[in-house]
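Lab notebook: predicted structure, single chain.

Context: the supervisor wants predicted structures on file for every construct in the current expression panel, including those that have not yet been purified. This is the next one on the list. No modifications to the sequence; it matches the entry in the shared construct table.
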Amino acid sequence: MAELQLGSLEVEVEHIALAGADGTPVDAIHARPDGMPVSGIVLHPDLMGIRPLYDDLCLRLATYGFAVVAPEPFVRAPADVRADEEVASRQAYAPQLDDDLQIGDLEIAADYLVVHDDVREIAVVGFCMGGMQALKAAATGRFDKAVMFYGMVVPPDGWTGPKTRIPLDTAADVCPTLAIFGALDVFTPAADIEALRVAWSDRPDCEIVVYPEAEHGFVHAPERPSHRAGDAADAWRRVLAFLLPN
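Prediction complete. Output recorded below exactly as produced.
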């Protein structure tokens, strides 16, 4: 995550348990800067959930003045799914996720920031699967801004179940949103990105940025072969400019 340079503020990072939308305890990372936060961020991780990578990311974001909460998206999955470090296990379980609960957990995380960190403006940010969930959450009316990193505009085959919301269905209703894609990402084909452009054709407060040589996951996980340091640095510059108060 080194392309998101550290800001100037000291930060405290802790792990907390939220009461989820159905009362289920939801593990979460909470980061808070010294002093009064400028605003809040609810951060949805990628498919593999919260882990040290996201402790570091929450810390880095908080050094710019944000209070941050990142909830674990698979808390209701069986223990063997949660413990498996292979992507295939969680991906196979994804159709069983209930978006009313998943989005509800994000809204509860926003409420936590309001109560515990005294923020009023809250953004939702997500990566990969979390980017898709951020696009859905952006249309609920709960969030003031949203950033989606290579989130699926239309879920691929094998990702949907009876309680899955389709993000493109409500894309026209989102709060101001910054969408970041890689042109070579098989999860976000050009036709889907174009469909999002059409949905936002009368939304000057929404922006799509496509990096021509980038594949999936090129920003947030530097250990991946797809990581592109220069594009990641540019993406973080855009994100901070979008989220920080003017």
